[in-house]
């Protein structure tokens, strides 16, 4: 006589299948587990594994108990981490107003973003750096100038949505003067800039790189109030 188990499928005592004893199950017989899995109704499942599916190690030998508590459900953590890793994260940029009299130092960019626009010296904040150290390093690397009296002026949040990969920058604006007023700017990185020169604040060249352009539109002035 057939005994119904949770649905249209049934267990029989025919020669085609012998229900394995608990000792056989505990011993980790792969064949016994395969037979048992094949007759269980689909609704007795947990994630993508059957409740009675035996977890196997690399040698094919049963490990751990076959209870549901020891089964591993579908884990979406890796998928979520992969998705999050593709999300753009905010970065910190440092821009420096190097002042000389009523002039400011600007260079014409050679880059995918803001190509041919006039920009301030600066770059990305590196791990362990202060804003002032980053400002001095970037100015030296790009122009060869040594600067002093470095002061933080303003912090802005900037979003760049037009590029293939959107960017979010926290821009730290600083001002400084030349450590030696007789220094002449050099184009240390010709692959990034066409050169550097001094420009009067009241007659800046065009076009300006968008962070600087936005500052002007907001009425920002980097010079000390006398």
From TrEMBL:
GO annotation (BP), single: dGTP catabolic process
Domain Nudix hydrolase, chain residue ranges per copy: 87-222
InterPro entries found in the cross-reference section: Nudix_hydrolase, NUDIX_hydrolase-like_dom_sf, NUDIX_hydrolase_CS, NUDIX_hydrolase_dom
Domain of life of the source: Eukaryota
GO terms for MF: 8-oxo-7,8-dihydrodeoxyguanosine triphosphate pyrophosphatase activity
Alphabetical list of Pfam families matching this protein: NUDIX
GO cellular component terms, semicolon-separated: cytosol
Assigned keywords, A-Z: Hydrolase
Family membership: Belongs to the Nudix hydrolase family.
PANTHER family for the chain: 8-OXO-DGTP DIPHOSPHATES NUDT15, NUCLEOTIDE TRIPHOSPHATE DIPHOSPHATASE NUDT15
Listed name of the protein: Nudix hydrolase domain-containing protein
């Amino acid at each position: 006589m057939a005994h119904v188990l949770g649905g249209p499928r049934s267990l029989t005592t025919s020669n085609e299948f012998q229900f394995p004893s608990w000792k056989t199950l505990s011993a980790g017989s792969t064949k016994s587990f395969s037979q048992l899995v094949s007759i269980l109704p689909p609704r007795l499942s947990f994630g993508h594994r059957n409740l009675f599916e035996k977890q196997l190690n690399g040698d094919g030998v049963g490990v751990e108990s076959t209870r549901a508590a020891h089964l591993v459900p579908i884990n979406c953590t890796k998928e979520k981490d992969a998705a999050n890793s593709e999300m753009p994260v905010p970065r910190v940029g440092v821009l420096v107003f190097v002042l000389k009299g009523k002039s400011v130092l600007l260079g014409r960019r050679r880059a995918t973003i803001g190509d041919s626009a006039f920009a301030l010296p600066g770059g990305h904040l590196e791990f362990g750096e202060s804003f002032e150290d980053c400002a001095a390093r970037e100015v030296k690397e790009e122009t060869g100038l040594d600067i002093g009296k470095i002061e933080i002026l303003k912090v802005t949040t900037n979003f760049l949505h037009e590029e293939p990969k959107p960017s979010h920058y926290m821009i730290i604006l600083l001002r400084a003067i030349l450590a030696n007023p007789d220094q002449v700017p050099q184009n240390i990185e010709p692959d990034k800039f066409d050169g550097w020169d001094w420009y009067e604040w009241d007659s800046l060249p065009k076009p300006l790189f968008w962070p600087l352009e936005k500052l002007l539109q907001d009425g920002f002035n980097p010079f000390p109030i006398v």
